[in-house]
Amino acid sequence: MASATAPATERAAPARPATGWLVLMLVAGLTGMAATVIQIVERIQIAENPDAELICDLNAVFSCGSVITAWQSSVFGAIPNAAIGLSVFAMLTSASALALLGTRWSRGGWLFVTVTAGVMLAFTVWFLWQTAFVISRVCLWCLVIGTAILLVNVAVWRVGHHLGHLERTSAPMRAASWLVRGGSDLVLWGGLAALVALMMVAGLA
């Protein structure tokens, strides 16, 4: 009887994602939520008093006020980027919290979380490009948000690999699984972070 149940237990083990990556995703999501809330508050302050000094207005380069008032901070019109970012981080944080509580992500659920995180990462990289080369200012909270969404992407791909969602899909996904198994994905994510940092330096030089 014991021998019959042992294989079933082994097969069920991968259903629970690696806790460490889910905790990383949760912490990154909460950090991103905090940064976006601060941005929303500062946006309200600027609206009430255009001359208000924000806590992240450190000098001519590190100036959140200059970034918040630029059109790039409200790409979708009346809804500021920070409000959309807050909703995205809230969803990602909820997904990681539910997984930590034992909910298993389906393949469709994992794909939704992954695509959402990837789109936000791409938008954030574009926004940082704009701040460096067009606005010529650095928003500290934007850097926090960029770091948070990058870490979420790292974690969500690791969770997907642990659940087996990469192996059961297309060849590109299986290639991604191979990268994760060997740890090469961390090198790629680190390379992306370094490229963004170099981009910021080059744009502000």
How would you characterize the overall build of this protein?
It is a single chain. By secondary structure, the protein is mainly alpha-helical. Helix content is 74%, strand content 0%. The chain contains eight helices and no strands. The longest helix is centred in the first third of the chain and has 30 residues, at 19-48.
Brief descriptors of the model:
mainly alpha
Largest sheet: none
Average pLDDT works out at: 87
Q: How far from one another are the termini?
A: 70 Å
Order of helices and strands: HHHHHHHH
Rounded to the nearest angstrom, the radius of gyration is 20 Å
Structural class call reads mainly alpha
Short précis:
By secondary structure, the protein is mostly helical.
Question: How do the helices and strands line up, and which of them pair or pack?
Answer:
Layout: H1 2-12, H2 19-48, H3 64-68, H4 81-100, H5 107-135, H6 140-163, H7 171-182, H8 184-204
